[in-house]
């Protein structure tokens, strides 16, 4: 039994040619005629919803430099720059395919594009940003995956990652169970952001610590497993995120932390179509299937906002 380091780098750099089958919440809400928009109280894109929600915690219109890591097709940043046109944005992505898509979406806007691995970015470079976004992509970061039927791996990256786990246990008193999958890449990403003292940070991803329990809608019933789960996708494997570990690291660096489910950002309108879809044990149409999956994600996804009081810091 032992760990191996699961990464998605090769897939994103060499294989990825479409996001059509991997539908994120952000992309699901992009088309104005999306059936998912009709399930919400406000008919708006994800970027618009998120911008308005974050405004409760972060002075977005006062910020200057914003970095989005793994920006997908660029829709979120397009909304942010429309709503706050004075922002200067940088899009950083490991995928040349997605970076090109972002360039097409953000044509004519004040955006800098960088093709690189965020985990290799210097802390000194991060210090130039007021706000960093990692939206719906922490599961793509390297994960130490546990398997009963494999020996301990001795490749350098796995060994390095296991040593880093020991560092996190010592530095932040994190307690990992003997056989849990460990989001080592997400832990390192948050620590890097904290060490750079980025004033405001937004993270989101499928969580292993959320649950759904609505007595009228059996489709929404699920419990939190508590440890990262494997998600097998086309050409690669991702893992859900244990946000409580990320929160511990953030608080160690004196960040104020706000956590919750996507349902906070995207409140549901329980109209007749939505209620009918959620009461169906099996979807009766493509639209019902889309709505069931979308609303499940609103409970399964978790966000974490990290912010520092710059007046106190000064």
Give the fraction of residues assigned to helices.
25-40%
- How many domains? 1
Order of helices and strands: EHHHEHEHEHEEHHEEEHEHHHEH
Q: Shape, please?
A: globular
Seen as an oligomer or otherwise, the chain set is single chain
- Uncertain stretches: none
What is the strand content?
Answer: 15-25%
For the biggest β-sheet, the strand order reads 4-3-2-5-7-11-10
Radius of gyration: 19 Å
Q: Could you describe the 3D structure shown?
A:
- It is a single chain.
- The protein has 13 helices and 11 strands.
- The chain has 314 residues and is α/β, with parallel strands linked by helices.
- A 7-stranded mixed beta sheet has the order 4-3-2-5-7-11-10, sandwiched between helices. Strands 1-6 form a two-stranded antiparallel sheet. It has a two-stranded antiparallel sheet with strand order 8-9.
- Helix content is 36%, strand content 19%.
- The longest helix has 17 residues, at 156-172.
- The model has no long low-confidence stretch (mean pLDDT 92).
- It starts with a strand and ends with a helix.
- The chain has a single domain, classed as Rossmann fold.
- Helix 3 (46-54) crosses helix 4 (75-83), helix 8 (184-195) packs parallel to helix 9 (243-252) and helix 11 (272-279) crosses helix 12 (286-300).
């Amino acid at each position: 039994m032992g760990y191996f380091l699961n990464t998605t780098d090769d897939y994103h750099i060499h294989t990825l040619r479409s996001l059509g089958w991997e539908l994120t919440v952000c992309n699901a809400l992009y088309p104005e005629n999306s059936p998912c928009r009709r399930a919400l109280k406000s008919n708006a894109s994800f970027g618009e919803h998120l911008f308005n929600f974050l405004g409760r915690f972060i002075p977005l219109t006062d910020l200057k430099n914003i970095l989005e890591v793994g920006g997908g097709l660029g829709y979120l940043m397009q909304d942010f720059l429309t709503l706050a046109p004075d922002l200067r944005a940088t899009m950083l992505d490991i995928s040349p395919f997605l970076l090109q898509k972002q360039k097409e979406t953000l044509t004519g806007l004040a955006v800098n594009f960088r093709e690189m691995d965020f985990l290799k970015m210097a802390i000194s470079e991060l210090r130039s940003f007021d706000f960093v976004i990692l939206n719906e992509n922490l599961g793509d970061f390297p994960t130490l995956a546990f398997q009963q039927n494999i020996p301990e791996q001795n490749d350098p990256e796995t060994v390095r990652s296991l040593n880093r786990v020991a560092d996190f246990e010592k530095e932040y008193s994190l307690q990992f169970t003997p056989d849990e999958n460990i989001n080592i890449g997400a832990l390192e990403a948050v620590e890097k952001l904290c060490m750079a003292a980025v004033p405001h940070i937004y993270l989101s991803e499928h969580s292993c610590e959320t649950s759904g329990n609505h007595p009228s809608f059996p489709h929404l019933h699920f419990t939190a497993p508590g440890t990262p789960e494997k998600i097998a996708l086309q050409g690669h494997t991702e893992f859900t995120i244990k946000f409580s570990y990320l929160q511990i690291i953030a608080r160690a660096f004196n960040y104020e932390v706000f956590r919750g489910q996507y349902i906070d950002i995207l409140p549901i309108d329980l109209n007749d179509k939505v209620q009918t879809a959620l009461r169906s044990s099996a979807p009766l149409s493509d639209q019902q299937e889309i709505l069931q999956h979308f609303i499940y994600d609103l409970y399964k996804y978790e966000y974490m906002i990290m912010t520092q009081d710059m007046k106190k810091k000064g």
